[in-house]
Structure formats: structure tokens, C-alpha cells
Design brief:
With about 500 residues, this protein is an alpha+beta fold. The protein is built from eleven helices and twelve strands. The strands form two sheets. Strands 6, 7, 8, 9, 10, 11 and 12 form a seven-stranded mixed beta sheet that branches. Strands 2-1-5-4-3 form a five-stranded antiparallel beta sheet, with helices on both faces. Helix 1 runs antiparallel to helix 4, helix 4 packs parallel to helix 5 and helix 6 runs parallel beside helix 11.
């Protein structure tokens, strides 16, 4: 069973209050009466000493002091001379005696024998303390008998009944005050326990949320005591943990990204090796086969011999082209070929590239449409942009349909210039559009050699445009496919 610290604190302090109240009541019940008797004995002794100091044998000289003593303390006083003749008795006088204005009216016969009994003891000391019975009301008395300086005898007494009643009243009153003390004390302890444990419970709640990696809640200190210092320490710990965990999460995310990147790189490396092996396998096999045929004199006439040589030369040229493209791609991505940017007219560059393809266009009966918008200045590396244009135009020629139309368009857009090369032909599947710029990727899954492509041209386009920090892409149009790229607008020359 779980008991909260508030309940334990309340119970402990409440039980402590009850213990001390009960302990005090037991002590009062056991020792209060004895303490009263002891105090009254001391009072009687002190009174007898004061009377002895000022008494000279004349009772009248003590009138004021004795009356004051009787009224304030309730002590009964009896004075006898050396012959045991009564000179003063507070319980048996009226107000007509000479000297003090009072005279004796009634004397208990038991008092004088009481003093007589104590006379032998007075010979060895200055006073005798004893308890006796009042002969009139049969109650206990505390008596102090002493011999005065002039030889007279003094008897002071006080009833035990009043002491017992006072002690009983004090005990009853203490029970009432004790109950009130317990009730009020428990109420105060309850509110104190709540106030004392509230910050502890709040700190516990903050610690629980910290264990759940929630560091948003902070402790608001209301003082500079130990709890306030603990709260400040927890706040500092929360901030440090929040910072450390955030850094760890960031590092973990970065590590996951690095691992994923390395995984992709590894997959790309494996795919790259596979693609290179596939692309090289066919020309190597052809070269090897035809070379062995020539070596073994398989061909018998000059025409077949020339055909064999042409095949070997053609396949070697394809291998050379692929190797050069691989080197270009590798060097561009590694940054070995830094860009040499300059401001030039993109329309003029397009016209120059088209002039180089003029013979092919006429042989293939391809119609070229251009929308160049006059002189358009761009800031880029002209040789690399020409390489992109050549690649896009070659793709357009290879995949143009029977309509034989290729269009080149230059469109200004704010601070950018968009260049697009499109042709009439079959659409590219949507799932393949995002993969076209990957090395060795071909839409033709059979990887036929119909167009002699290696799948590296668009990868080179991607690397060049990433160095220019500009966008590029491909999309299907109503009539075919459009490849495009964006360049920064150049300032006037």
C-alpha cells in the first residue's frame, strides 16, 4: 500500500502532538499535586523567615504584614509565647483585642500540644515541617513550626484540600486545553503538510515528465530554501537534458541519414558496376568474336572482311564513347572540372548547336522549330551548356516519331531563363520520369542497342546543372516529351 509523504508527515506530527499532550497530562496528574505541596511548603518557610526578621515580641507591629500575608496567601498564623500562651491566632480572633484591635475568641486545644510535640525538634533546628489534621474540619494541613528570635513560637499552616482542588482543576483544564491543542495542532499540521509537500509533489511531477522526455514544464521557486535550490537544480538538469537529447536526436537523425546515404551509395555502386559490366559485355564479346573470326580466316572475300573490321571499329568507338562519358561524369561530380561562368547569348549558342546538326536534320527529314525570343543573356559555362543541348537534341532525334518535329524554346522567367527541347513521339511512363537522370537508366527494360545509348548522357546533364545550382527536368507534353533546364539571367555585356 502506497502512503504519500503528505499523509506520513501529517500522521507523524499529529501523533507527536498527541504524545506530548498525553505525556504532559500524565505528568500533571502524577506530580502536579506534589509540586503544589512543595511550593506551599516553600511559601510557608519564606513567610516564617519574613515574620522572624521583623517580629520583636509585639504582635501589633506585625498587623499590616500578617494581614497582607493572610489575604494574599490564605495562610493560617498562630503565635505563642515561651510559656505557650496564645498571642495571636488568625482563625479565632475578632476585632476588639487591644494592640491589634482584635482578641482571641476560640482556640483549638489540639494546636498547643502540636507545638509542644515539635519543641524538642526545635532545639536542634530553627523550624519543623509536618502534615497534620485540622481538629475543627478534619482536613489535612501543612504546618511549619519555628522558634522566633525572642523565643516565641510561630505556627503557619495551609489546608491540603485547596492544593488538591487546585491540582484537580488544573488537570481538568489541561485536558480541555490539550484536546483543543490536538485539534488545532492537527488542523495546522494538515495545512502545513499540504504547503510543505506541494513543491515536492510538483518536483515529482516535473521529474515524471522528464522521464517521458518532456522538458517543457519548469519549477517556479518561491524561496531560497533547500526546496528552491532543488527546484533550480532540476530546472538546470531539465535544460541540460533537453539540450543533450536534442543534440543526440539530431546526431541520430544525421547518422540515420548518413547510413541511408551510404546504403544508397552502395546500391548505386553495385548497380553502376552491374550496368557498366552489361554495357561493356556486348561490345567486348562482338570485338572478341569478330577478331577471332579474322584471325581464323573465317571470311573468304574482301567485303566480309571489311564488314568484320567495321563492326570491331564501331564497337570500339562505342566503348570509347562510354568510357569518356564515365570519365566526364566522374570528374564533373568530383569537381575536377570547375565551371568557367560567363555572360553569353543563349539564343546564339542554340543556333550554333543546331548548325552542327543540320546535316542530320536533313538526312532524317526532321523539322526544327525555334522560339528564341531575340537576344537572351545568361550567366553559365557555355561549353557545359552546349554539352546539355547536344545531349537533349540527340535524345530528341533518337526518339522522334513519324511526324519528325523538334522544337527548341527559350522563355524568360523573372531572374531565370528556361530552355526546353521537345519532340513529337511516344510518352515516357510517369514512374520513369524521376529516374531518367540516373546513371545507366533506360526506359527500355530490355536494354536494346537500337539507339546505341549508354544511359550516361542525362546523368552528365544532372551533374552539370547541380554545379550551376539550377533546376532541370523532363515532362510529357500533348505531342511527345520535353526536356528542360533553367539558367541564371545574365547582366548586359
Amino acid at each position: 500500500m502506497r502512503i504519500s509523504i503528505r499523509t506520513r508527515l501529517f500522521a507523524a506530527v499529529s501523533l507527536l502532538i498527541v504524545f506530548f499532550v498525553v505525556f504532559s497530562w500524565v505528568m500533571n496528574s502524577t506530580y502536579l499535586e506534589k509540586f503544589y505541596v512543595y511550593q506551599n511548603k516553600r511559601q510557608l518557610i519564606s513567610a516564617s523567615e519574613n515574620i522572624n526578621k521583623i517580629y520583636n515580641g509585639n504582635v501589633g507591629d506585625l498587623a499590616l504584614e500578617i494581614e497582607k500575608l493572610e489575604r494574599l496567601t490564605g495562610i493560617d498564623i498562630l503565635i505563642l509565647d515561651q510559656n505557650l500562651t496564645l498571642k495571636y491566632y488568625s482563625m479565632g480572633l475578632d476585632k476588639e483585642s487591644s494592640g491589634m484591635g482584635r482578641r482571641p475568641t476560640r482556640i483549638s486545644d489540639a494546636l498547643i500540644p502540636l507545638i509542644i510535640d515539635y519543641i524538642p525538634a526545635l532545639q536542634t533546628g530553627d523550624r519543623v515541617i509536618a502534615v497534620s489534621q485540622d481538629p475543627n474540619v478534619q482536613t489535612g494541613l501543612i504546618n511549619v513550626v519555628s522558634k522566633l528570635n525572642n523565643g516565641d513560637y510561630l505556627l503557619l499552616s495551609t489546608p491540603l484540600e485547596s492544593i488538591q482542588q487546585s491540582a484537580a482543576i488544573a488537570n481538568r483544564f489541561f485536558i480541555i486545553t490539550g484536546i483543543l491543542t490536538i485539534l488545532i495542532g492537527c488542523l495546522v499540521v494538515y495545512f502545513f503538510a499540504r504547503r510543505f509537500t506541494r513543491p515536492i509533489l510538483e518536483l515529482n511531477a516535473i521529474a515524471q515528465r522528464m522521464s517521458e522526455l518532456d522538458f517543457s514544464r519548469k519549477y517556479v521557486s518561491s524561496g531560497q530554501d533547500e526546496l528552491g535550490e532543488l527546484g533550480n537544480s532540476i530546472n538546470s538538469l531539465s535544460d541540460q537534458l533537453d539540450k543533450s537529447i536534442s543534440e543526440l536526436q539530431t546526431a541520430n537523425l544525421k547518422l540515420q541519414e548518413d547510413i541511408e546515404y551510404e546504403r544508397r551509395i552502395d546500391e548505386m555502386r553495385k548497380q553502376f558496376i552491374s550496368n557498366v559490366s552489361h554495357e561493356l559485355k556486348t561490345p567486348i564479346a562482338l570485338i572478341q568474336g569478330y577478331a577471332e573470326g579474322l584471325k581464323d580466316n573465317v571470311v573468304e572475300d574482301e567485303e566480309n572482311k571489311n564488314f568484320y573490321c567495321d563492326v570491331i571499329t564501331d564497337e570500339a568507338a562505342k566503348m570509347n564513347k562510354m568510357v569518356r562519358q564515365l570519365l566526364d561524369l566522374s570528374q564533373i561530380e568530383a569537381g575536377y572540372f570547375p565551371l568557367e561562368k560567363e555572360v553569353f547569348d543563349i539564343s546564339s549558342l542554340i543556333q550554333e548547336v543546331l548548325a552542327k546538326f543540320d546535316l542530320i536534320f536533313r538526312e532524317e527529314q526532321i523539322t526544327i522549330k525555334t522560339d528564341l525570343s531575340g537576344d537572351v543573356l545568361v550567366e553559365a559555362d557555355p561549353s557545359r551548356i552546349e554539352q546539355i543541348l547536344v545531349n537533349f537534341i540527340n535524345n530528341a532525334i533518337d526518339h522522334v516519331d513519324e511526324r519528325k518535329e523538334i522544337q527548341i524554346q527559350v522563355t524568360p522567367a523573372d531572374e531565370k531563363i528556361r530552355v526546353a527541347v521537345s519532340n513529337t513521339g511516344d510518352f515516357i511512363p510517369e514512374e520513369a520520369l524521376s529516374k531518367l537522370f540516373t546513371s545507366f537508366y533506360k526506359v527500355d527494360k530490355a536494354r536494346t542497342r537500337a539507339y546505341g545509348g549508354t544511359g550516361l548522357g542525362l546523368s552528365i546533364v544532372r551533374a552539370i546543372m547541380e554545379q550551376h545550382h539550377n533546376n532541370y527536368g523532363v515532362k510529357n507534353t500533348e505531342d511527345g516529351v520535353e526536356f528542360w533546364f533553367v539558367l541564371d539571367r545574365g547582366k548586359s555585356l
